[in-house]
Amino acid sequence: MRKLLYLFFSMAIVAALTTYAMWAADRPAGHYLSDLRIKLAVDEGTPGDRGNLLGIQPELFPTDYQSSERLHRKLAAYLQQAQDQGLLNDKTVVVLPEHVGTWLMISGEKDELYQAPTLAEAMNWMAASNPLLFARAWLGAKGSDRLNDAHLRMKSRAMAKDYQALFGGLAKEFHVTLVAGSIVLPEPSIRDGQLKPGSGALYNSSVVFGRDGAPLGQPQRQMHPIFDQREVIQASEQTINVVDTPAGRLGVLIGSDSWYPDNYRKLDEQGAQLIAVPAQVFGHGAWDKPWRGYKGSSTPSSVSLKPGEVSEGQAWHRLTLTAQPPSSRAIAGMSVFLRGQFWDKSSSGQSFLSSNGQQFADGDARGARLLNIWL
């Protein structure tokens, strides 16, 4: 009798594990409906032979990331519309927003993830349907927030591969220089022309792809993550990279890195003529709420702005790029924000550009937007 019970329970466990394995491996592709339209919101300057700086403020949702092919379809549609309006040429530098690559972590997942009501529940589905990847990532997680670290780390190899294939492919397809927003990876680096993750701390990083689709220089890592992210994302001590593009020397400051006067000085020292700021502000209506200050990082001595004095949006305009002190010798800069709804997390940033001491922005931030400045 005991042997019979043992056999019964063994068979039940095997059946349960087999069913779970089959469920975890099943990745049905649902129908894809998404708005591919984009509006030219800002177009400054006169077309010439010096090129242009073009920001794409996309409107993205979890289902856009169900596969890299779907995300390519949407971003390529935006670029095609820009091309149809005469905004792309061999000297165009395209800028995408912060974390546009990070969400590649949800690519190829089960329908339950995309249909989840909250981000936390979506991440639970991702861990449940990738048990071995999650377990390995949990064992290698760093810092105090091991759960979120593991979520970001568990698919890093596939994310890095998809990021380069997608954004390098778009740069080559449309023959432009592309600032590919940012992606969170463990110790990312370019080795033999390929973006490779390491095994150490997580960094929020941006890669610039040339017109041939190849990376230009090493990934630029974020130096000043905001307080909400510092338990997971490491602050980089890496120097600022400046790369040569057909439109001029380009520097990238990720998010709140653009609030630090010393970073503009370092860019000036390297002869940066263009500044790209991939950015995001999450939270419904956060753009119009009081600015919370430097959010855990030390405030630069030359910055007199105090928390609560202005709104979040006004602070970005005061602190970022070339129109307000800290001044920069760059001829143009652009701050591009991610728009969309990721489960219960909505975005509210509004992209803007600056040149010759002036700022230009679109007052209506709904939907996808193009912002262009001719150099």
Write the layout of secondary structure elements.
Elements: H1 2-25, E1 39-44, E2 52-57, E3 59-60, H2 68-84, E4 92-95, H3 111-114, H4 119-129, H5 131-140, H6 146-153, H7 156-174, E5 177-179, E6 183-186, E7 189-191, E8 194-196, E9 202-209, E10 215-221, E11 242-245, E12 248-252, H8 261-269, E13 274-279, H9 312-319, E14 332-337, E15 339-342, E16 345-346, E17 352-355, E18 358-361, E19 369-374
Parallel strand pairs: 1-19, 2-4, 3-15, 4-5, 12-13, 13-14
Antiparallel strand pairs: 2-19, 5-9, 6-9, 7-8, 9-10, 11-12, 14-17, 15-16, 17-18
Helix pairs in contact: 2-7, 4-5, 5-6
Query: What best-fitting shape do the alpha-carbon axes yield?
Result: globular
Indicate the low-confidence ranges by residue numbers. 14-24
The helical percent reads: 25-40%
The tally of strands reads 19
What is the string of SSEs from the N terminus onward?
A: HEEEHEHHHHHEEEEEEEEHEHEEEEEE
The quaternary organization reads as: single chain
Key terms:
375 residues; alpha/beta; Nitrilase/N-carbamoyl-D-aminoacid amidohydrolase; 8-stranded mixed β-sheet; 9 helices; globular
Structure, explained:
This protein is an alpha/beta fold. The protein has a single domain, classed as 4-Layer Sandwich (Nitrilase/N-carbamoyl-D-aminoacid amidohydrolase). The protein is built from nine helices and 19 strands. Strands 1, 2, 4, 5, 6, 9, 10 and 19 form an eight-stranded mixed beta sheet that branches.
